[in-house]
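ok trying this again, last paste got cut off
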Amino acid sequence: MRLLKNIFFTNLFFYFLIGIATLFTVAFFVHWLLIPVKILLFLFFIAFIWDIIFLFGKKNALKIIRNYPDKLSNGDYNDFSISIESFYSTTLSVRVLEEIPIQFQKRDFEVIKKLIPFQPEVIDYQLRPVKRGVYSFGKCIALVKHLGLIERRIILDEPLELPCYPSFIQLRKYLLMATTNRLDEMGVKRIRKIGSTLEFEHIREYTRGDETRFINWKATAKAHQLMVNQYEDERSQPIYSFIDLGRSMRMPFEGLTLLDYAINSTLVLSNVTILKDDKAGILTFSKNIGNHIVAEKRNSQMQLISEALYKITTKFEEPEFGRLYAYTKRKINQRALIFLYTNFETLDALYRQLPYLKLLNKSHILVVIVFKNTELSALASTKAKKSFDIYNQIIAEKFNYEKQLIIQELQANGLQTIFTTPQNLTVNSINKYLEIKARGLI
C-alpha cells in the first residue's frame, strides 16, 4: 500500500499508453502491425517494471536536509537552502516541492534538478516575511524519476516552526558598519561634537596644561599643593523609544506596517545607544501603558528589548497621551532622550495631544517622529488623465500640505521632529540621536 501511495505516473506514461492504444486501433485495419504493436506493449511493460524496481529498490535513496535559520528577520530577505544527495547508481532528475508557510501565499514552489550520485545538490531561495509571529513549514517532497514513466515520492516529514523577530539582519548590518567605521555608507552622518557635558570623576594633582577653572581650592588648601577636579564626558544617559500602538500605526507601506518600521528602527537605535555607552529602554502605549523596559546598558538588555518587540501588536484604539505623560512623570525620573514613534495624519489630531507633548518636552528631550505618506506623494505627482484623477490629486496634495503644517506646528512649540519615509526611518533616527548627542542637549 505504501508503494502505491508513493508512485506518481508522469505525462510520458500516459502518452505511451495513448500511442499504443492508437496503434492497436490502426492494427485492427492493418493486420501486419499487430505483432510489432504487441512487442512494443511488452517492451513498455518491461520498462515500467524496471522503472519501479530501480526507483524503489533502495530504501534510503535520497538524503534531504533543510538548512534553515533558527529565526526569521522581519522585513528582510532571509536565505534558505535545501540539500539533496542521491544514493542511486546513475544520474536522475528530481522535482522538489516545499510547503511554504501560509503567510507567504506561495503555493507554486517547484525546483527541478539533476542529481549526480553521491554529490549533494543545493537549492537556494529567499523569503521576505512582513509579519512577526510563527511561520510553519510543512513537508518537503522530492519526486525522483529514472526512465521518466513514473516518479517516486520521498517525503521529509519534519514540520518546522520558525519565529519571526524584528529585523536583526538590519541590526547586524548597522553593527558591522559601526565597527568598521563605515556607517556613512548607510546614510549615517558624522556630526562634529559641539560643547561637552562633563561628569566628575576624581581629584588629582595639578599638572602643566590643566585648565585653571577646574582647580579645587578646598583640596588645594588641605594638600598644600594645587589640586584639580578630573572630569570625563558624561555617559550612560537614558534613551527611550516610545511606540504608539494605536490604529494609525497599522498603515502599511511595502508590506510592513508603520509599527513594524518603528520596531525595526527601535531595535537598531537601542543597539547603537548601548554601543555609545548610553542606556536603552522602550515603552509601548495606546489607550493603556503596555511594555516598559527600564533604560539600562547591561549585556542582556538587547535580548529583553528584542523579546518585548517580538510580541507587540497594534490595537484599534486611540492613544492616551495624557496617561503616557502621567506614567512617564511617575516612572522616569532622570532626564531622558525620548523618541516618540507615532503618526499624526491631521492637525486636529495633533492639537488634541500637543499639550501633553509640551509637558513631556519640559522634563525630557522629546523627538516626535512623523511619517511621510509616500503613496500620497506618488499620487500627487502622477499625471492626471481623467477628472477623477484630478480630484484624487487635490486630496493627496491637501494631506501632504497638512503634514507640512504638522511639522511646522511641532517645531514652533520647541519639539524636535523627524519627518521621514518609513524606509528611511532607521537612518534618520540614528542621525538625530547622534546630532543631539553632539550638540550636548542631553
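PB: full thing came through this time. The longest strand covers residues 78-86.
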